[in-house]
## 1
Amino acid sequence: MAALRQFFAARDFVEVETSTVVTSPGNETHLHAFATELVAPAGSRERLYLRSSPEFACKKLLAAGERRIVEFARSFRNRERGALHHPEFTPRRVVPRT
């Protein structure tokens, strides 16, 4: 990880860390998010989700004006299990925009 961070820093990328818990699981029908519940001190409850991908959050940063970002993010997908899939994984999102 140190070598990867050094590689991207040398190329003027900014490392970002976007939220893991999100209010919407996304609109992709083939992806299934893990649901959780936020319980406020007053007792109110809000349904939240573990992100299935950091892509949407990274795109929002690009739209806000960030130019070169990288994120080493944990993502979670329910209903994915097998020799090539695991419910928790780390995708590498590298987004250069010139």
## 2
Amino acid sequence: MQVGDVLRTKNARVVTIRMNETVGIAARLMRANNISALVVKDDVPSEGNTAVGMFTERDVVRAIAEHGAAGVNLKVGQLISVQRLVACSASDTLEHVRHLMNVHHIRHLPVIENFSLAGVISMRDISTAFDEAAGAAVAQTAA
């Protein structure tokens, strides 16, 4: 199974944030959209739909743990590593993406196609896909 198979079953909407926005704004966006990660885009709108990083609930917690209440005023760009964007493509297998997530200790990956953001895949998406495939295999064997 490939990443593209999972993306076709998901809501295509991806919530993004710019590097110059604050942790507080990021937290409100995550809460409003009931998600745990945002795709970070560069401050300068560039050609295409380019991701430079991911900002997660972990980053919110880290900002507050290290800076107290003032952490909500930090810029998202201060807390992400733009040099190490880990991403995948729609043609990558779920096994490969799961391996990337495990190696890098992350739970969300932006999906990049033709230098543009095509979606986000999460560890939960992968787990659900594997569970559904296993259920279908059991049902097929029982029939």
## 3
Amino acid sequence: MRHPILAMALAAGLVGACSSSTSPPSAPLATASPAASEAGTPLADRLEAEVAVEGSPDWPLVAFDSVWVVAPDLPLVDDTATPNLIRIDPATNEVAATIVLPDRLCQGFTASPDAIWACSADALVRIDPATNEITDTVAFEGTGAISSYRPAVGGGSLWFLGSGGFVANTLVALDEGAKSTRTFEQSGTIFGMAYAFDALWFTMPGEGSVARFDPVTEETEVVTTDLPNPTAIAAGPDSLWVSLHGANDDQASAGDTQLVRIDPLTGDISAEFEIGGSPQSGVEAWAGDVAVHVRSTTPWLVTIDPTTNEIVDTITGGEPVHGPLTAGFDSVWTVNLEHDNVFRLAP
């Protein structure tokens, strides 16, 4: 199970990719709602493969010609519980490697240009994708890693979340070449991070805001406020996409705006989306050049056209359990939290 301090990580997880594209639509504000669930495509009709991975696989990531997931919920072995990093071969849809990580406190991992980096209780570990072995360990200085969310990469650093008191309020910048870290404490608890547009962007659910951290000046600027519990954030080609987990008892309800599109130049919201789902649902999205794929509960997955801000596709019929997702190898890859499988879907 996830670290109890980060239970809200069950709510949302986004990951994005940046490249050139059209600018976000201007005023008037666009809104969108999913089509009725009856009109969606059944999950079985889009399922290309279902990969069995023991330990509740989470946070799918595409890197080094593979799909990677962390499996945090493994049975105890010799009274020691450790998560595994799992590598999946998309050519065979089978597990190609299993890397045992040092401890289970932190589940965040990401890819640099030549390695996979994962966090542990008080250090970062480097995995060589050529050998699937841990080759280096970099200790955190003055903080512990507690993030079970996706780290970010950009500006010459890998960005993790740290804490001095079990509150994720500290940005941790890893210099991969120097094998050293720097820390930047922020004013509130951070949930999601994304690097794009020459800055690190992050959400602060308790403050209802999205902030921008400049890695050159090391200054933080709040750019968007009055959001109902913003959690995960993704960077698309020209916009930020932020999940809203709801203002009522920290739960996004059907009928609420559950996803917003933000202009990074102004911080203004250019589109709002009702994804659907139950009162316990959050949204998980992957923002790309031509589509934004969003996981929820009912519908199970929706696809947004970023050029029109229209929901153009829905997938229904999956078990109403949300989970993060990514895209690669002409497929969408996602999970159902707390279940032992990875789904490969036709987009």
## 4
Amino acid sequence: MRLPLILLGMITVASLAGPVIAYLMGADPAAVDLLDRFAGPSAAHPLGTDELGRDTLLRLLEGGRVSLTIGIAAALAAAAVGTAVGLTAGYLGGWTDRVLMRFADGVIALPLLPLLIVLAALDLNKVGVPHVIADSPAISLIRIVVLAVLVGWTTAARLVRGATLVTRSRDFVRAARSLGAGVPHILWRHILPNVMAPLVVATTLSVGDIILLESVLSFLGLGVQPPLASWGSMLSNAEELITSSPLLAIYPGAMIFLTVIACNLLGDALLQRFDPRDPVRV
């Protein structure tokens, strides 16, 4: 667990320290200098500059903040929604369980990428969203988080439901019920702590999946929009420059690869820590 934690921690700390590094360098990651395009590494620009003369290192750190924010926020939100659905379905059972799980099955059966492309390309101004919100710079980031939650809650829901079905029949839950404890109290105090292990593992693994999802949408031009930067949008900008300036694609691609690998390794390590007898169960 130590190696993925160190790697993920270094990436996170470096990304969060981007504004401080920009201040120390006396540079602006959004500053355009057309006279200094495609410059190689130097003291002023440790990783060179991009097609608009912007500092590649600072853009990489800014993209890291955006990509990690999307991945963590969407993973936590999807886990919260899935937990609520899974607890309700698993504890109440009956028709409630059947309706919620069939709805989850329907979401899983949807063609994911075409659906996300359609929803990401939807003009918010035409669906009643106020212009102040629809035209804000951060709306593309919020949109990706919402889309990731809409399609990503099902994993947490099914895991929590399964664990709840097992836990609700245990003696301490029966004792709490016989003493008159209400359903919210039983779910919060007795069942939820016992389903956290698979939930934490699934949430950790989903961070990498959501970063990949954001990268795909941004690569297609439907993700994070300027002036915000993300690793996916940097890859998209470097698509036509892959032969002349391959490093502009290698840098964000490497960061996506390392971050996703670190999340997956951390998830596997947590899985083995919580249940060493079953290292392949998810």
